[in-house]
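Target chain:
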Amino acid sequence: MSRERTQAVPAFIDLAAQREQLGDSVERAISAVLTHGQFVLGPEVTELERQLASFCGAGHCISCANGTDALLMALMAEGIGRGDAVFVPAFTFVATVEVAVLSGATPVFVDVRSDTFNLDVESLEAAIGEAKRRGLKPRCVIPVDLYGQPADYNAISKVAEAHGLLVVADAAQSFGASLDGRKVGALASYTATSFYPSKPLGGYGDGGALFTDDDERAARLRALRNHGKGPDRPDTEHVGLNSRLDSIQAAILLEKFRLFPGEIPVRQEKADRYSEGLASVVEVPRLMAGTSSVWAQYTIVTERRDELAKACHEAGVPTAIHYAKALNCLAPYRQAPTSPTGLRQAEWLAERVISLPMHPYLSDEAQDLIIAMVCQALTSRKAGVAHAAE
């Protein structure tokens, strides 16, 4: 491929293009924080929490230092710990299982669906039975909205209600998406999200937030992020964390949030364009009925993943392989209990997924080049269009 064609391909996630759209608003927002000097939990944090809660229809938004702390704080707020079972999908980022272990609970791995990449409810039912057989108390399920699409919270909530499980939504990749007209943030008892720079709504550093409709839970979370001390209480009342959001990050997020609602439909347009161009050579991602996605990643499935990754690298097309191993295959978690029906789809997907550049500033020219590159690489001989393991 010529140098000119290679230069047309943007970064995997083009933060610089978004930065141009923001103009000097970020500098002005940061300058305002430098002027008033309230660098932690300042007025920008309060305003960001207000706007985010209003956007998704949640009663409360409680910001924190990062998305992992957001998940951990939800477990801490419910007193989940030793002897408790926390059910997590085996195909996701390690933070989801990490917080179960940090809380003192036992993670139990659940398989995922090959079409949406999200938690499989039948596998969850089987995993609950396995936890009970081992003498664990089923306490919590953490569905993950992988790559930007909400999990099947309608089905998951029915299982959770039947077994007395708390639902903590891991929405690190899905803030801005919806299910049956309800936005992420209002689909579970707790919803945790991340503002890591690569997320659809990302800052210029770490940050996270929790959403809940429950006043008491919200107050507990606000105390937990500040060493267990409530904002209007003289004494520490809980064992907590140092997990406060910096005012500068909140100021940046407020400026980026102005663009965010307009970026969501553009992400969908880019995803549709990819799917139209690639469906004949790979398994393209599919949305569950009633869902919208914010397309944190556009992830395809192919039996020829390594071959495709090599061809794209040589052509200057950036790709990423997220979660190259299922969580149960990682050294710290190999002894964790698993659903007795197995984790076949999680392990199968981990060997076959690859993500392409995805962001709202991806030009048609660049996207056409990426589509052509993928098609060329996979039609050099009969393409290995992926199908779910039987």
In short: Residues 1-7, 382-390 have pLDDT under 50 and may be disordered.
